[in-house]
């Protein structure tokens, strides 16, 4: 469904991504793993058009989106949840969701607040609460819920487990598995191998802006050398 190839990106003169390639198949969870500063967020931003790629392709079901504006890429069906939470703190949960609403797509059931509250029961209990009066974990869930209101086919989740308590991390993993059951394709970026293992089908490992390893998550779990070389601190 998503096929990235030969992707390069720069910040000014700094060459950050070199020849990045990855593929997420329809309905799977692919995790992009790497240490701090490896290039995970930049890869997601380049896919989303927030950092313009200097070369390469970003194909969604065959159509090349590289170089398009972020709103065009969003309209093509990619939803992006950045690392930093992006909610409107003065708006309630319901109002935040209304801001994210976009037309449904033929292939997937459209998201409504009620469907989202089945997925995120906490949000349902605080539907009239302003975003600014929610915990970090709740704000993270609301950011994901608001992105889902745009009815994406592919969801990019940048380090969703970061800074969350173990209990909320477990809820986050269940949410991602539920989204997969609903037919969504997910590209997740993570440093946390344990969290990635709860949800991921396949893994791609990035280091210093280059892809170093790709395969099933089970194969990565069995590959102690790759883990030591590219992932341990
Ligand atoms: N706006 C920017 N300007 C210049 N350099 C940047 C900018 N953002 C990130 N970088 C650099 O690009 C490299 C990749 O950063 P990136 O944020 O993609 O890594 P990451 O794997 O997502 O790590 P993290 O877990 O810290 O977010 C790092 O060396 C970082 O210092």
Automatic annotation (TrEMBL):
Record keywords, A-Z: Amino-acid transport, ATP-binding, Nucleotide-binding, Transport
UniProt-recorded Gene Ontology molecular function terms: ATP binding; ATP hydrolysis activity; branched-chain amino acid transmembrane transporter activity
Originating organism: Roseomonas acroporae
Family according to the record: Belongs to the ABC transporter superfamily.
This protein's name: ABC transporter ATP-binding protein
Any single biological process term in GO: L-amino acid transport
PROSITE patterns given in the database record: ABC_TRANSPORTER_1, ABC_TRANSPORTER_2
Ranges for domain ABC transporter: 2-233
Transmembrane parts of this sequence: none
UniProt xrefs under Gene3D superfamilies: P-loop containing nucleotide triphosphate hydrolases
Pfam families xref list: ABC_tran
């Amino acid at each position: 469904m998503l096929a990235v190839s030969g992707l390069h990106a720069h910040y000014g003169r700094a060459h950050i991504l070199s020849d990045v390639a990855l593929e997420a198949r329809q309905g799977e969870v692919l995790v992009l793993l790497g240490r701090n500063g490896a290039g995970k967020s930049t890869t997601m931003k380049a896919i989303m058009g927030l950092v313009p790629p200097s070369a390469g392709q970003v194909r969604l079901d065959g159509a090349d989106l590289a170089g398009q504006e972020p709103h065009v890429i969003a309209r093509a069906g990619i939803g992006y949840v950045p690392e930093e939470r992006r909610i409107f703190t003065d708006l309630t949960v319901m109002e935040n969701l209304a801001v994210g609403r976009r037309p449904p797509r033929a292939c997937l059931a459209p998201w409504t607040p009620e469907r989202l509250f089945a997925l995120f029961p906490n949000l349902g209990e605080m539907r009239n609460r302003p975003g600014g009066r929610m915990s970090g974990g709740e704000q993270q869930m609301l950011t994901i819920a608001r992105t889902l209101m745009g009815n994406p086919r592919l969801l990019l989740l940048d380090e969703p487990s970061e800074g969350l308590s173990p209990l909320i991390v477990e809820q986050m993993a269940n949410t991602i598995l539920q989204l997969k059951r609903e037919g969504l394709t997910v590209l997740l970026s993570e440093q946390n191998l344990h969290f990635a293992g709860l949800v991921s089908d396949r893994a791609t490992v990035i280091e210093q802006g280059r892809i170093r390893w790709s395969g099933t998550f089970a194969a990565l779990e069995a590959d102690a050398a790759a883990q030591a070389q590219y992932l341990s601190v």
